[in-house]
Each structure stands twice: as structure tokens, then as C-alpha cells.
């Protein structure tokens, strides 16, 4: 699994792109590729947990969603995660 941490600004482009992004994340959740996702309580960023086999698979999913390169959205960290409880 992979944890993707995002940082946000108040750029209007981020708000305009959010709905389409949430639709994509919802579809990926239905496919089992996203386990959980959501904004931080203060809306300064978000955390997403992807369940894909390797970094190239994750990179393809991120590249397919323009939200991650939208002004106001920055991927600040990507970490591989090995949970023992799910």
C-alpha cells in the first residue's frame, strides 16, 4: 500500500478541480485501488491510501488525475506502507 500526502493552498483552480477528482477517487475506491482518502480537518492537505502493487502502478494512477498537478495541490510525500491490520 501507498500513502500519498497532499498540501493545499486556497488557489481557485483547486476548488474547481475537486469534484472531478473526488469522482475519480470514488471510482478507484470501488475498484479496490483506494482504501481511504480525505482532507485533513483544517483543509491544509489530504491523505490518500492506495492499494496497488508497486510504485509504477501508483504513478500511473496519479498521472491519470489532473488534480495532482492543479495549482493549489502539491504532493508532498509518497510512502510505501505495510499495515498489519486492515
From TrEMBL:
Domain YCII-related: residue ranges: 12-81
Membrane spanning residue stretches: none
Superkingdom of the source species: Bacteria
InterPro entries: Dimeric_a/b-barrel, YCII
A Pfam family per the record: YCII
Homology family: Belongs to the YciI family.
Record-given protein name: YCII-related domain-containing protein
Annotated source species: Micromonospora kangleipakensis
